[in-house]
Amino acid sequence: MSGVNGVALAVLVVLFLIVTVMGFLASRWRRTESLDHLDEWGLGGRKFGTWVTWFLLGGDLYTAYTFVAVPAAMFATGAVAGFFAVPYTIVLYPIIFIFMARLWSVSHRHGYVTTADFVRARYDDRLLSLAIAITGFVATMPYIALQLVGIQAVLEVVGLGGGDSVIAKDLPLFIAFVLLAAYTYSSGLRAPAMIAFVKDGLIYLVILVAIIYLPSHVGGWSEVFGAAKEKMAATNPATGAPTGSFIPASGQMWAYATLGLGSALALFMYPHSVTAGLSSGSRNTIRRNAAILPAYSFVLGLLALLGWVAIAAGTKPLGLDGKPNAQLVVPQLFEDSFPSWFAGVAFAAIAIGALVPAAIMSIAAANTFTRNIYKEWLKKDATPAEEARVSKLASLVVKAFALVFVLTLDKQNAINFQLLGGIWILQTFPAIVFSLYTRWFHRWGLLAGWAVGMVYGTVKAYQVVNPLTGGHFGGSLAAIPGVGDLGYIALTAFVLNLLVTLVVTVALNAAKVSNGRDSTSPGDYYADAGDPRVRADLASTDDLTRGEPQA
Amino acid sequence: MGTLRIMTLGEDHHSSQGAPEVPVTDKGKLVAAGILLLIPIVALMWVPSYARETPRLFGFPFFFWYQFAWVFLCSAMTWTAYKLVLAARR
Fold this sequence. Notes:
Helix content of chain B: 40-55%
CATH topology of chain A: Sodium/glucose cotransporter
Helix content of chain A: over 70%
Largest sheet of chain B: none
Number of strands of chain A: 2
Number of domains of chain B: 1
Strand content of chain A: under 5%
Largest interface: A-B, 48 and 47 residues
Number of helices of chain B: 2
Radius of gyration of chain A: 23 Å
Number of helices of chain A: 24
Oligomer: heterodimer
Radius of gyration of chain B: 20 Å
Number of strands of chain B: 0
Structural class of chain A: mainly alpha
Structural class of chain B: mainly alpha
CATH architecture of chain A: Up-down Bundle
CATH class of chain A: Mainly Alpha
CATH superfamily of chain A: Sodium/glucose cotransporter
Distance between the termini of chain A: 46 Å
Order of helices and strands of chain B: HH
Strand content of chain B: under 5%
Order of helices and strands of chain A: HHHHHHHHHHHHHHHHHHHHHHEEHH
């Protein structure tokens, strides 16, 4: 790569500016009196219908993960490392179908905004709630880091940054960070919800062109799979083992299945996914969405295969420092194969597609911090304006930590950021999902299980050393005790979490230790939009939204 | 099975504090919906059943087109489950 690609950069900048203007205008969309209220800044008024929810969820789920990290993993080490994302995003929907409606109902009956709110009320236990909140806040950081890597990849291929000095080397990353921060701070959730339409339009355009044109350009799908099979079977000189997997081999079945299932169980524990789910207008919106969202999974699968199209096309993803960097593979493929102006459109699609979810994620993590840490533990009598201000600041903090993740961990394997977040967030699953159905599990059993799962998962992930760089947190697979094959650490930790929860629960229940006070009632879990108290909850924001429609 | 209707416990004390009642639910339909939701999960987690190259379709090895096919199958099953759950609560 030589110098800056002027045309592509110009197209990228123009599209970016259009989207930014839209973002600022978005604060006027379904305008409210002010955004100095957490429900407004952070939940967009909770009135989104099926289509807005579809786009919002899509914005959450299909991110730099989809079009940078997954194809990069496919390109570098093959199907087990990358294609598991397809079963992951398919089985995801039956899973959320099952519990999300209950969470929606109970949350709207009582005005919960976060899962920690729910757990707090279910057991009247501040510690368990704090554990959920902290996990949500921390696990979001590597996920946002992944988005920053995505924006950075585009900027690097377009030719920004580089050079010799330390500051110039990471310049694209800092530009990405500043853009994201400025943008989220001003408009809250409305900005990404509005831009999600544009983003999805751009992405579908780019994907359609890429999927129709690129495979035939390199000789058809047979050629693509042939080239991939050859590369994956070849010996990697650095490790002495095959480069990767074309189709999971006999010792890799567990890895493939656990990566898929673990990721699927984890995703809707993240604050941002819960935010998207709860901002839908009725109990059944989310279920309807569960049936139509798999359309995204199909696209995700095709995008994953772009990593292999790049193998057939002979793409050389070299960074500005001259070293190979798999994360650059999709932007580089676009730059090599398309005229500059269309490469610019594709770059904009990728960058905006990373920006939108990163904004949603940081807003949701900030909501959790404000409600369940700041207001619960630090300042009980915070006014709504104070809450909104703390949320905005917290959204900056979470992004700053994300930057630290990018700078300290191995960027070459960005998909691992998302998997690392998954290891942590999955440990909140029992306390949240099981509690939607039963109070048999003891709150301290859930807390003990969470703690054991967190420690085990973190230690195991730390112990995974990247064979090429020697760095820790080099991957998310470790031998499953009792099976021997590699498996996703998150799921092993989850099973351990369940065992501890069970044992402690049985012991504490036998000793008749109080399981806290439940402030929900069985009927709360079925309430729908017509219910008087749900109506009251929706109306508390409705009053605001009915202000003078200002143009 | 379709006519089996079960009154759940919550119905008795819905009057307290205006709490909504637990709706009358057709358990048979819920179970059917649950099975429909479980099928894609089991099918896709059973990796050895599809980790092979043949038969190919449009140049795609079996492993890949089989999973793509499940996008549509899962979507259809989830939609059916949605209709069943709606019917079960009426």
